[in-house]
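Q: What residues go here?
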């Protein structure tokens, strides 16, 4: 029998790619998403790619009744919880929305899971919980802090999960801290489809390349880095998706073992362990796509840090997972998606 997984936020960027990886690994997927930042078309395309139907439920994680209905109709092996809002700037302007959606929504979900004695949870956290890191590469036990409501919402959920693990040792609460997810499925059929003007670097570059935006502004050229621009750990979304499969496989192994069945609160970085500068990414993108990327230097963006890259050892040792795809793959796949779908999931 296939293990069934509830994927909240499964219509979104990372969720849609993870649905494919889960299906390919033999899991059955049920997607629960309110489509506040995504399109049902993404789920259709995933279904087309895997050549199988996907059960999609339109619903909000803050809606207890809707969740209870889902849990009463399905027997899940685990939940992967992607659903959340993620725009840093918007979180500063609308903190209540972010805490309600990301924190209250997660608590409602955990509560309903508890009611149905379903206690395997994989949470989408972020390298943002490391604030301005003291040590590079960043290990999982580095100090945590937040500089904006989005980051604080992730950190708060992490604290909730830690407390829950202490209170009830039946829970497995794998907390995956993503570094900088970029790229798209190699088919070019699904990818990242930001609303409005992108805040993040890779979608901005690809929209410049496709002619939707005129010029990239590079925020800061005087950081203490290889070329003065910010350094990040970019990770291909397909590798990231496989990290989720590895986490579930690990939980499957644990649940089958004699002594332990739960893993408690388990934070794990998902990154490549390698830093790439903004300029290096722009250059690589321009080379592999043979597109011109006009850019100008601008002042530093408030809240940005110089460098951020993961220690990827724990994921390798514990989950047997490591990122395999290169910066070239990330640029090639982003461009395939962007050039074939200049308007994202909106037709024309
Ligand atoms: P995304 O916006 O593409 O996907 C999130 C999905 O959740 C969307 O489909 C949205 O409609 C849905 N959603 C939001 N609120 C919901 C609610 N209340 N009920 C039901 N569905 C809801 O974002 P993504 O890039 O795929 O990110 C997925 C998760 O990973 C998020 O929690 C995000 O904070 C986290 N994360 C993302 C990044 C990144 O760079 N993309 C980095 C670190 C962490
Ligand atoms: C940002 C968020 C982080 C979130 C992550 C994923 C901030 C301060 N941090 O991370 O909380 O988890 O996205 O959603 O917003 N850059 C440019 N020009 C641009 C865009 C970006 O030069 O137009 C630079 C940035 O200054 C940075 C690098 O590119 O040095 C990466 O930026 P971005 O893609 O936004 O990711 P982070 O800032 O790392």
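A:
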């Amino acid at each position: 029998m296939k293990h069934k997984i509830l994927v909240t936020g499964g219509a979104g960027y990372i969720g849609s790619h993870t649905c494919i990886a889960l299906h390919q690994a033999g899991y059955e997927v049920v997607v629960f998403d309110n489509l506040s930042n995504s399109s049902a078309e993404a789920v259709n395309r995933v279904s087309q790619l895997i050549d199988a139907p996907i059960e999609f439920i339109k619903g909000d994680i803050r809606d207890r009744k809707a969740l209870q209905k889902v849990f009463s109709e399905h027997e899940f092996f685990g939940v992967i919880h992607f659903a959340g809002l993620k725009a840093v700037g918007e979180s500063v302007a609308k903190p209540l929305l972010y805490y309600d959606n990301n924190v209250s929504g997660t608590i409602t979900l955990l509560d309903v899971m508890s009611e149905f004695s379903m206690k395997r949870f994989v949470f989408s956290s972020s390298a943002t919980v490391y604030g301005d890191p003291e040590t590079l590469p960043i290990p999982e036990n580095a100090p945590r802090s937040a500089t904006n409501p989005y980051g604080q919402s992730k950190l708060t959920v992490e604290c909730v999960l830690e407390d829950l693990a202490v209170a009830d040792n039946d829970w497995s609460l794998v907390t995956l801290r993503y570094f900088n997810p970029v790229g798209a499925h190699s088919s070019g059929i699904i990818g990242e489809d930001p609303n409005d003007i992108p805040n993040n670097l890779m979608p901005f570059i690809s929209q410049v390349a496709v002619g939707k935006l005129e010029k990239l502004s590079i925020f800061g050229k005087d950081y203490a880095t290889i070329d003065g621009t910010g350094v990040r750990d970019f990770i291909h979304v397909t590798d990231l998706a496989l990290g989720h499969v590895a986490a579930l496989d690990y939980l499957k192994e644990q649940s089958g073992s004699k002594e332990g069945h739960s893993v408690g609160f388990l934070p794990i970085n998902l990154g490549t362990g390698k830093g790439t500068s903004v300029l290096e990414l722009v250059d690589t993108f321009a080379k592999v796509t043979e597109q011109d990327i006009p850019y100008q230097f601008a002042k530093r963006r408030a809240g940005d840090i110089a460098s951020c890259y993961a220690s990827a050892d724990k994921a390798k040792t514990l989950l047997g997972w490591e990122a395999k795809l290169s910066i070239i793959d990330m640029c090639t796949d982003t461009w395939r998606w962007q050039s074939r779908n200049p308007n994202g999931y909106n037709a024309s």
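A: Context that may help when evaluating the design: The pocket of uridine-diphosphate-N-acetylglucosamine (ligand 2) is lined by residues 86, 88, 126, 128, 150-151, 180, 199-201, 204, 216-219, 230, 232, 278, 301, 303-304 (CB under 6 Å). The chain has one domain: 4-340.
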